[in-house]
Every structure is written in C-alpha cells, then in structure tokens.
Amino acid sequence: MQISPRQGLLRVREFTLAEIEHFVDPEDKSHPKFPDVANLEFLMFPREDQVSGRSARRIRIGEAVVQGIVNNETLGYFIGRVYLFLTHLGIDKDRLRFRQHLANEMAHYAADCWDAEIECSYGWIECVGIADRSAYDLRAHTDKSGVPLVAHEKFPEPREVEKLIITPAKKELGLAFKGNQKMVVEALEAMGEKEAMEMKATLESKGEAEFHVCTLDRAVTINKNMVSISKEMKKEHQ
C-alpha cells in the first residue's frame, strides 16, 4: 500500500499487484515453450546500449537469448509472455520497451533483470519487473524457517559427478569478523566454481586472498585457515 500519493495515477493509496514465482533447474534454464515466443520482435534496451548512449532497438527475443543479451530461455520466455500480455491489453507497441538493469541496479544475488517500461507523460515508467533471482528467496526462507526448500530430480542410473566442496572454518571466521561472520560464511558458500578455484590457487600461492562480500559492500581478506576448497567425486542418485 502506498502512503504518499503523487504523480497522479502512478502513486495512489492502494493498487492491485500480481506476481508469478517460477522455479527452474539452475543447471538447465531452457524452457519447453520458448519457441512459441522466440520470433517476437520488440523494443529492447540492453545495458550495453544504455552505457554507450545508444537508443533502444528492436530485437527478436530468440536472438537476444542466443547472443547472451538475455541470460537464459526461461527468462526470455517470460519477457515474451509479458510483451504479449501488455499488447493484448492495448499498450502501444511503440511505447513499450524492455530495459535491462544496469550492473549497479542489480541485486547481488540476481542473474539478470529486465523491466517492461511504458512511455507516458512522465517518461518511461516501469510497470513490470522480470528477474532471475537465482535461489535467493528459497535460501532466505530456509534460513528463517529451518525447513530446507529444495527439489530433487531422480536419475535413471546413479552417476559419478565432480562436486565443489567449500567448507568455511566458522571458528576462524568468527574470530576475524565477529558479528559479520555469518555474512562472510554465506558469501563463501555461494561462490561459483570459477571464483572458488581462483581463490584456492591464490590461497595456496600467497596464503591469503581478497574476497568481495556483497552484503558488506566491501572486500575482506581470507587466509588459508579460514576456508577449505576442494573437488570430490561423488555418486548421485538424484
């Protein structure tokens, strides 16, 4: 509910919102219905064009995904569906664009974010937000509730996979970072394979490494006693 009405209908005391939260396999973000929207062409405003001073341009959503402008098929599918929904409501196609968030607008946990913007007398106004929020919401709910919110896919046959193992030394991190220990631990555990292996190499060669913690908005120094990083072969059934 809005408590500070201004700018006419853009800020009223209350209005109805709708939200879709779609869950996807983080290792396979393809979408079976993406071909249904892949040939849609509409105004898109990628962050590179914004930074370089170029204007929004018409791009097929299928090409945007192939070129890496849009992060994945599932995100592209929902961008396409939002376009169809808004134009079905009567929004002028020439006054509708999809603007990608700049790097400094992105949440630290997000993979990619786009806004459907409509041009009106106040300029381009965000009306719909479409974001790949990774697993942040599930992790946050799990942390608060203590109930693991996970899904499993069963394999026809068990398979051997190489797994990245990151084990923060909570005692050492607690001594070093006091009340910020939890945020440093979570950031270490959330590292991707490339970043983790680069840290491992730096720790082995130099004994310490600089590590940026988004929730602290600064870099911290991690030494080799604070975290163990390795790879192990494990048999998975699901």
Structure description:
This protein is α+β, with helices and mostly antiparallel strands. The chain has two domains: 1-151, BirA Bifunctional Protein, domain 2 (2-Layer Sandwich), CATH 3.30.930; 152-236, Signal recognition particle alu RNA binding heterodimer, srp9/1 (2-Layer Sandwich), CATH 3.30.720.200. The chain is 29% helix and 27% strand. The protein is built from seven helices and nine strands, in the order E-H-E-H-H-E-E-E-H-E-H-H-H-E-E-E. It has helices at residues 47-52, 61-66, 73-89, 136-145, 170-177, 181-189, 193-206; strands at residues 41-45, 57-60, 96-100, 112-120, 123-132, 159-168, 208-213, 218-223, 227-236. The strands form three sheets. Strands 2-1-3-4-5 form a five-stranded mixed sheet. The protein has a two-stranded antiparallel ribbon with strand order 6-9. A hairpin with a 4-residue loop joins strand 7 (208-213) and strand 8 (218-223). Helix 5 (170-177) crosses helix 6. The model has no long low-confidence stretch (mean pLDDT 89).
Contiguous helical run count: 7
Largest sheet: 5 strands, mixed
CATH topology of the largest domain: the name is BirA Bifunctional Protein, domain 2
Q: What is the CATH homologous superfamily assignment of the largest domain?
A: Bira Bifunctional Protein, Domain 2
How many distinct beta strands?
A: 9
Look at the structure and give the CATH class of the largest domain: Alpha Beta
Overall radius of gyration: 22 Å
For the terminal residues, how far apart are their CA atoms?
A: 43 Å
GO biological process, one term: glycyl-tRNA aminoacylation
GO molecular function, one term: ATP binding
Main location: cytoplasm
Subcellular location: Cytoplasm
